[in-house]
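Project standup — Tuesday

K.O.: blocked on the structure for the chain from last sprint. Re-posting the sequence here as requested.
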Amino acid sequence: HGYLTSMGLAMGKNLDREHHFLLFTRKWVDGHGKLGVDPHNRFPILSYALIGATVSKCSDDPVCEMDRGRILMLLFCWGALVLATLMLWEISGNPLLAVGAALIAFSSYFLQYYNDMVFNDVPALFGFILVLYGITLFETRGNLWVLWLGTMLANTLGWQAYGALLTWWVHVAIRSLVTVGLKGWLGDLIRHRATRTFVMAVAWGCLLLVFNIFNEKQA
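H.V.: unblocked you, prediction finished:
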């Protein structure tokens, strides 16, 4: 918890114009005087940009940085709780059941321990549940804008949302095979929004990778 919090704060502060907006954990100098940096995960750009903005007025005061960073993480955690409640409400139609199930799920030891860790894991949880909520709205109401906007946002918070999208795509592929049959299966799957959304997410992720690789070379 403490190690990742300090690492997250460092990466958030390093994500600036001076360092070419590169996500890295540390700078180093070898025995020959060569300078270098250690790049980190290239996806969660928005998570660390928000961390950096949150602690920017702390004047390198570590207590201030940790306090503000933890408040930001708690806001993401509470946001994930709200999204989980809305998703369960949409599925069950029972608001009390949705609230109760979401509170029980978010009362686990791991969520209570890690909910204020200043790293991209908590924003990634928010993004993951946002994508699940978007999938739920599409399946129940045909609503697409939450899914697509949520996918774009989630992939800037962390790569974990790909797990939700891939699982949905596999489910749609199996469902299509059962309902349409082998003859029209491929065409039906290609036209489905799950395929288009997954392709869009992969393309967006590739752009994020190219952006960070370019910044790494500049640095």
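K.O.: great, moving the ticket to review. The chain has a mean pLDDT of 90. Residues 81 and 103 are 7 Å apart (CA to CA).
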